[in-house]
Amino acid sequence: MKSYRLLAVLLFVCAATFAQEKITVESIYSGVFRAKGMDELQSLKNTNQYTVLNFDRATKSMQVDLYDFATLNKVSTLIDTKNFKELSAGIDSYTFSKDEKQMLIANNSNPIFRHSFTADYFLYDIAAKTLTKLFDFQVQEPTFSPDGKKIAYAKENNLYVYDIASKKSTQITTDGKKNAIINGITDWVYEEEFSFVRAFDWSTDSKKIAFIRFDETQVPEFSMSMFHKDLYPTVETFKYPKAGEKNSTVSLHIYDLTSASTKDINLSNYGEFYLARIKWTNDANIVSVQVLNRHQDNLFLVFVAAGSGSTKAILTEKDKAYVDVTDNLTFLKDNSFIWTSEKDGFNHIYLYDKLGNLKNQVTKGNWEVTHYYGLDEKTNTIYYQSVENGSINRDVYRIGTDGKNKLRLTSQTGTNAATFSPNFQYFINTFSSATQPTIYTLNESKSGKQVKVIENNEALSVKIKTYNVALKEFFVLTTAKGISLNAWMIKPKDFDPNKKYPVLMYQYSGPGSQQVNNEWNTTDDYWYAMLAQQGYIIACVDGRGTGFKGAEFKKCTQKQLGKLEVEDQIDAAKVIGSYPYVDPARIGIWGWSYGGFMASNCILKGADTFKMAVAVAPVTNWRFYDSIYTERYMQTPQENPSGYDDNSPINHVDKLKGKFLLIHGSGDDNVHVQNSMQMMEALIQANKQFDSQIYPDKNHGIFGGKTRIQLFNKITNFIKENL
Prior knowledge:
Helix content: 10-25%
Mean pLDDT: 95
Strand order of the largest sheet: 36-37-39-38-40-41-42-43
Radius of gyration: 27 Å
CATH topology of the largest domain: Rossmann fold
CATH superfamily of the largest domain: Alpha/Beta hydrolase fold, catalytic domain
Number of strands: 43
CATH class of the largest domain: Alpha Beta
Shape: globular
CATH architecture of the largest domain: 3-Layer(aba) Sandwich
Strand content: 35-45%
């Protein structure tokens, strides 16, 4: 009996010791807490199957594996890199031809900006299992023609068409030149703010290519020194239109492969405009473009006749603030189309006929549709994701095109996202919550019934328990002004309500954003759990201007970014400071990008509320930021000078009382280090002490090698020393 008792004691001591494992920055950013996923999950269009990119640790190879939706059984391996020495560097991404008999495989990718990259591309014949390297040079955005016989691609700002049978390329444009003319690929500001790179599209009959041409010659240039390890730094120069400055002149063109001729489309009646989206309709003679005026408060869906070049605006959206560009435009067989819009105050699904006449508003209510998945035309059933079950949650629904027979297909409260089978019989549901790591399940689309668990990340769940990770608690915070705001809080596991704790507030706060969401979030959440282990409370509040609570709540910050959002963070800090377990003299705030802009403003405008702040890659004056994003919310500096100046932290440096850490990457092509340099100079001339860190050559994400580890150790030490 004594030996068993001793063993039990030893096991208890070991378990207790194991349970006290401490989270470290090194463990967080070296992938210790990484969840298992389904990489490059793609639903096929012609068979009831899907593909996943898998990594074989034993052979250190990558495979594109094919699975059956109904059974989840692996059908075959489409390609394994161990069989092709050309793919020794792995597979970065892959796409299928329309008939799904060929694949385009990318590797050795070299990033350009946030989304754009060049890569080596290979053509893979699935049946023959033959791999062909397409070019001896890297290209951008290669795309199969619908008939699978050709591939359009961009190289050095020009467009080309590659004929698969003859293995020959035809050059479509010849005037492409760096920092001058771009054909078929977006410029920097379009890529960043309209979130697309490929600015060309094939007609459904594979006979024409519509593309956007960017004339950047009049756009001001921005230059960055890149320090590398060379004796002399190099200079990266690119076109960057800041608020109120000259944008690229964009034009629409249609290339006819048969006649080898290009037609220029006249859109001059729209004045100064953006071409925010280009998409060919199911009619091979009609291409659609979303034309947006510079103020971005008037959007036109324009149909262009490829033969005559005539144009017709079949739908117009106007808003007193701005109109969001939709990615949900879907053309049906008869060229009627699905459209999403927040014109009734909330983002909803609409069905229009091919002439642009409204047939039906499919979804209605004081909640937002967050993703449109598709339409099963056999049953006239639309599948979508929404926040109907609370603005911090996401659920998957189905509904008839007539707006009837709506059914919630997901049952667990949190964030649900779906990948549907081609026939809409099944969907793979990706579910997580603030307390549950990601679970992948197979579900029936008709009822939502779960068929099988694919991956539940049980190993990660066990690991989280051994580290005693503190999790988020959601609540609604009401400010002294009576404004109700979504919030979460992380408390130490050994929380004592009789103690007084320091609080670190995190936020982003940009228009339409959301940080208070019921989802298993980023690696930063483990950092918050680490801080909680060290005796800090972490809180996050989504103020006015954030998303998924309707257009009025989101757009109330129009023309005055940084006013109401900052007021809300200061007011929220005062409410949190009134809690009996919070030390109101020890409240700090931090953020990145827009969040860095906010943190900077808060330590200045809220000098008596916040003890310290950390601002990473902040905008410090909206005059320094790009035209499309800034003018969407602020109009131009010429039109709204006070909106720019009154709420730019660079103009409030004399108010600094607390401790301030300013961090930036010198190679940030998005929010230029100029912002922080100007902020530093303003602080210096105001005779204010502050801390700073510049990361050489690092972009807006500030990562690479051990950069994130060093970065978050620095922020952690600053918090521990000053909060």
